[in-house]
Specification:
alpha+beta; 35% helix; flat
């Protein structure tokens, strides 16, 4: 199967919503670290073009850093406290 625009598409969020999601992911990471919880992180949901309506999405884990470099395209300031 070849990848072409007739079979594949990217759908998603407006850029400002993606930025908010990335900042929120960092807040969740901080909370998970404070309570020694396992970080579940973000997941891209993939559905092949030949999937049937009843087929499940395929979850693909993605890190905050991968979202920033691969989808947002520029740096986002950290909400973590900086040591002075």
């Amino acid at each position: 199967m070849s990848i072409d625009s007739n079979n594949w598409r990217v759908t998603g969020l407006p850029r400002y919503v993606l930025r908010g999601l990335i900042v929120q992911l960092e807040a969740f990471e901080l909370r998970h670290e404070s309570f020694d919880m396992i970080d579940s992180g973000a997941v891209l949901m993939f559905l092949p073009p030949d999937a049937k309506p009843t087929d499940p999405f395929i979850p693909i884990p993605i890190t905050r850093e991968q979202l920033i470099t691969g989808y947002y395209g520029e740096s986002i300031s950290s909400i973590r406290k900086q040591d002075n």
